[in-house]
Amino acid sequence: MAHSMTGYGKAVAEFPNKKITIEIKTLNSKQFDLFTRLPGIYREKEIALRNTLARLLERGKVDLSMNVEVLSRDVSSKIDHHVVHQYHEEISKLALGMNEAPPQDWFSLLLRLPEVMKQDTEELDDEEWETIEKAINRAVDEVNAFRRQEGQMLAKVLTEKIGTIRSLLADVEPFEAERTEKVKARIYEALNNLEGIEYDKNRFEQEMIYYIEKLDVNEEKTRLAHHLDYFTETLNDKQSQGKKLGFIAQEIGREINTLGSKSNQSGMQRIVVQMKDELEQIKEQILNVL
To answer: Alpha-carbon distance 139 to 33, whole Å?
Structure first.
């Protein structure tokens, strides 16, 4: 069953003092490309997270964001008295050297300066990360559900396009006998217009047969029909195989191109152009198949 590479999932991990919202968005890409936005405390888990997501999502451009909403803030910030005194001393010297009066609101100014507030270092708890991992897995499940739903729509479109090419292939047959007869008639007419030329009729018939066989498209039609069947079979496989579908589409294109190169009849050429148009649309859709 075809899966799309486009997906979205969201999950929440709740704790007594904070709520963590995890969002995962995926788009099409040839490889697995992960972009993360994690708070500093969780950065140590990025490599393990990358391996997990690569296993669960396989392929695509993956954007994971983790937003922390603090519900009740513990007092973990402290004023660095030493830094405050250093700032006060430096500003006083600067004001004196510039013959400027020190600012009136010293206290407010000093508290806004860098490094005045010290943050206690927060360590990641194993139990907390286990809860976050479960939330990430729930978000991944939503992404995969989204991908399956989008994949069903993709499969429907691709099946219709393959069916159209199959129908166009059947439309080629009525032109074949007519095309062969027209080629023969044109050659005979050209030959009869040559006055005073004698030729070996047996040899002529042999050459005619050889020439007609070179224009025969039965082999291309058979191979093209086989590729169309193989494409449908792969599309309905239990595992989504976007890359394999891409390779089969290339083979379909080769047979259509050969059919076009052998076609010297306007009706057949129009059919080939329609086939190529359907195939281009198929290739565009395959880019988003996992």
So the answer is: 17
User: Is the distance from CB of 24 to CB of 61 less than 8 angstroms?
Assistant: no
Cα torsion 219, 224, 225, 227: sign: positive
Mean pLDDT of 256-273: 86
Whether the model clears a pTM of 0.85, i.e. scores above it, the answer is no
* Dist. CA 7–CA 3, nearest whole Å: 10
Nearest alpha-carbon partner for 135 in 42, 60, 71: 42
pLDDT of 75: 46
- pLDDT at residue 74 in the model: 54
Both structure tokens of 45: 């888990």
Q: Which ranges in 98-217 belong to alpha helices (H)?
A: 106-111, 126-192, 201-215
Note whether 15 and 131 are within 8 A (CB): yes
Q: Which residues contact 286 (CB under 8 A, 6 or more apart)?
A: 158, 242, 245, 246, 249
Q: Three-state DSSP class for 23?
A: strand
Q: Which tokens is 4 given?
A: 């799309």
Question: Which of 74, 67, 73, 54 lies closest to 132, judged by CA?
Answer: 67
DSSP string, 157-175: HHHHHHHHHHHHHHHHHHH
Please state which of the ranges 122-131, 163-172, 206-215 shows the lowest mean pLDDT: 206-215
Least Cα distance to 115 among 153, 73, 84 occurs for 84
Q: Please check whether residue 217 is in contact with residue 263, taking contact to mean a CB–CB distance below 8 angstroms.
A: yes
CA 129 to centroid of chain Cα atoms: 30
- Could you tell me the domains of the chain? 7-74+126-146 (3.30.230), 77-119 (no CATH), 149-286 (no CATH)
- Of 27, 50, 25, 8, nearest to 290 by C-alpha is 27
